[in-house]
């Protein structure tokens, strides 16, 4: 049987970060969502997996839609800030 919620230490191990990193993220309202059960802070396993999936999709190496090599190039500008003449 798999646990539905993980403690801060278990969640940190699952994500591969230090427990202090999770505490900092929680304080700054970053990272995966957490909640309290009694006096313990816990993380849902499904929330950790969703957080990892979001991280993966926001990285251009994993998401082909974000590949900077496919982006339209901005027009070149000269030193004065004006658009440079196109090469013929």
What does this structure look like?
This protein is of the alpha+beta class and 88 residues long. Helix content is 34%, strand content 12%. The chain contains three helices and three strands, in the order βααββα. Strands 1-3-2 form a three-stranded antiparallel β-sheet. Helix 1 (8-15) packs across helix 2. It is elongated.
Topology at a glance:
Layout: E1 5-7, H1 8-15, H2 19-27, E2 35-37, E3 40-44, H3 45-57
Antiparallel strand pairs: 1-3, 2-3
Helix pairs in contact: 1-2
Please sum up the structure shown.
With 88 residues, the protein is of the alpha+beta class.
Which features characterize this protein?
single chain, alpha+beta, 3 helices, 34% helix, elongated
Which radius of gyration do the C-alpha atoms yield?
A: 21 Å
- Largest sheet, order of strands side by side? 1-3-2
Strands, count: 3
Q: How is the main sheet built?
A: 3 strands, antiparallel
Please give the alpha-carbon distance between the first and last residues. Answer: 68 Å
SSE order, one letter for each helix or strand: EHHEEH
Return the average pLDDT rounded to an integer. 84
Subunit arrangement of the protein: single chain
Instruction: Give me the secondary-structure category.
Output: alpha+beta
Helix content: 25-40%
Taking pLDDT < 50 over at least 5 consecutive residues as the criterion, the unreliable ranges are none
Strand percentage lies at: 5-15%
User: Quick one: overall form?
Assistant: elongated
Q: Total number of helical segments?
A: 3
């Amino acid at each position: 049987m798999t646990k539905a919620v993980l403690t801060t230490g278990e969640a940190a191990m699952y994500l591969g970060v230090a427990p202090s990193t999770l505490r900092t993220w929680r304080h700054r309202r970053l990272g995966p969502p957490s909640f309290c059960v009694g006096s313990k802070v816990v993380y849902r396993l499904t929330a950790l997996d969703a957080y990892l999936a979001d991280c993966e999709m926001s990285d251009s190496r994993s998401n082909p839609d974000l590949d900077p090599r496919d982006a339209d190039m901005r027009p070149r500008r000269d030193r004065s800030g004006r658009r440079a003449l196109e090469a013929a």
